Design the sequence.
């Protein structure tokens, strides 16, 4: 039986403005077809702002499916169009493995920690 579309999203999203035109979007939980619209609705408006960078902290993510990958890929494309950096940080091993299987680890700028992702941006 398929889950109903009105299920409570299983992802928590927080946005932190780090100053200097840098925004950190911290995600935790599961990013799937039910919750990826929430992530998208947070990310997309950021690219209309005059920002230098968006860092997506994935350290709290326990699961990501193809819709979550598509949402992050859209963010990457929008960042290129907007001329801003788009970095991913803190991927747990199981999430990093999904990116490796999809052959996306070379497409995104991926950093082990949030602090490493912020280096060179400030």
Sequence:
């Amino acid at each position: 039986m398929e889950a109903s579309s009105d299920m409570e999203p299983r992802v928590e999203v927080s946005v932190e403005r780090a100053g200097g035109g840098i925004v950190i979007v911290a995600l935790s939980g599961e990013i799937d077809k039910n919750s990826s619209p929430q992530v998208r609705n947070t990310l997309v408006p950021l690219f209309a702002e005059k920002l230098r960078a968006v860092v997506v902290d994935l350290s709290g993510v326990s699961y990501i499916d193809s819709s979550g990958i598509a949402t992050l890929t859209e963010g990457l494309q929008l960042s290129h169009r907007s001329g801003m950096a788009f970095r991913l940080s803190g991927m747990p091993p199981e999430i990093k493995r999904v990116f490796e299987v999809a052959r996306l680890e070379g497409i995104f700028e991926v950093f082990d920690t949030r602090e490493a992702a912020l280096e060179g941006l400030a």
